[in-house]
Each structure stands twice: as C-alpha cells, then as structure tokens.
Amino acid sequence: MKRRYICTDTTTGILSAIYDAWKYDRSDQEAGIVFWGNMQQEMFCEYCEVKESEEKARAVRKLIRGHLGEEAYLDIGYALLSGDPGKGTAILGMMMEARSLPDGYRIMGHLSHPAVRTVFELSRAVGREIHAWKEFLRFRELEGGILYARITPKNFVLPGIAGHFADRFPLEDYVVYDEPHSSVLIHPRQKQWLIVKDEERKWEIPKAYSGEEEEWQRLWKRFKKRVTIEERKNLKLQQTHLPLRYRGDMPEFH
C-alpha cells in the first residue's frame, strides 16, 4: 500500500517527513510527501502525520551531505524553497534513487530519473529567481530611517537573498516583506538577520515614506524618463532582461 507523509510546507516539516519515510524500506513509487492544506485523498493509500522536529531535520541534512555530497545538498536546499507542491516527494524519490547507486555522490548526474530531474529543475528555477531579486529588489526609506522593500516572488526566496543584503547593508535597519508567503526578513543594523511569519500582514502596508525618499523617487523617475530614447525602444528586449512580473515591486515603474 502506498504511504503519504503529511507535514507543513517548511524545511523542517519536509526533512522530518523524509526522516520518517527513510525508516521504511520503500521505493519512491510507494512513499510520498503531502502538505497540510494541499492534500488530495488517494484510494488505497495510508496517510501518516509527521511529528516535526529540528533533530530529525539535522539528521537528514547530515545524511544528505554524507551520502549524496555537497552539490546535491545545495540543489535540495534550493528545491525546498520552491512553491511546487510536489517538491517533497521529488526530494524523497531522489534520495531513494541515490540509495540504490554504488556512489550516491553521482546522483545529480542521473537526470533520466524523474525525481532527480524534478529536483534539478526546481533548484534551477529557485536559483534564477533568487538571482533576479538580488538585482531587482528596491528599498525605500520609511519615516524613522528604516529601509523597506516589498516583493512578490513565486518561490520562498528570503533565505536565499538574506545573506546578500546583510553583506551589502550591515549598518542599515531594513525589512523585506514577502507578500505571497506572508513572511518578513528583518535585519537590525550590525546584528543577525531573521525571517518571521507575518500572518496578520502588519508589514503589508508600510508606514509613510520619508520626505527625502519621496524626493529621490521623483528624481529617479525623471532621470529614467529623460534618458529614454523613444525611437530606440525595444520592449521585447527590455522584458527579456527585466520580466514584467518584477516591475510591480519597482518604484520607477509606478
């Protein structure tokens, strides 16, 4: 009988589910991972509620690094941030496949296996979006001097961009609000950043922007308009380098 492990759509939840599934000698076709709130009941299937813990998650991380290698560990880490509901089952399937290989370190070369290919594609998609938000994220200064940015990513990119902006702005207090995932990246100046859930959406509508910020936005929009050469506009090329879905969070396009 097929077995489905039910967990939250979090890194700890998914790794805990993998920990439980790993205890059973099952093929990747028999075991799968589903998330609370995103389940479709299947016939002839046993459902198991996962007891999530950081201890289980640490054990699975150690297992991945020890038996699959650093490359697979990084790809799985990015895949865990994906918004794809099938990511947990794909990661579990990939680990089951690696178990059958003489050298698990070569698992990422087995792209003919559906689970390995899925993890690779999810990792690549998340990596691309993380790179894009590093380039396109725009901070705006609130009254009080806090920098604020709002983003609407497809995937949960905050863990992927946090270190980048902490290195760039170590002396700034800033907040990055991820609207689709109701999460906030908070960085107090010269302190460690943290990511928290914002179920009440307190950061969805920021406080008033500072007067200086309003002036800089006005000047930036004027500059953007002045340097534009109407006769040389190439909208298709622009959208290749800066897709439309990012522009809603960039003040120069408002």
UniProtKB/TrEMBL annotation:
Residues 99-252 form the DUF4130 domain. It comes from the Bacteria. This is DNA metabolism protein. It comes from Sellimonas intestinalis.
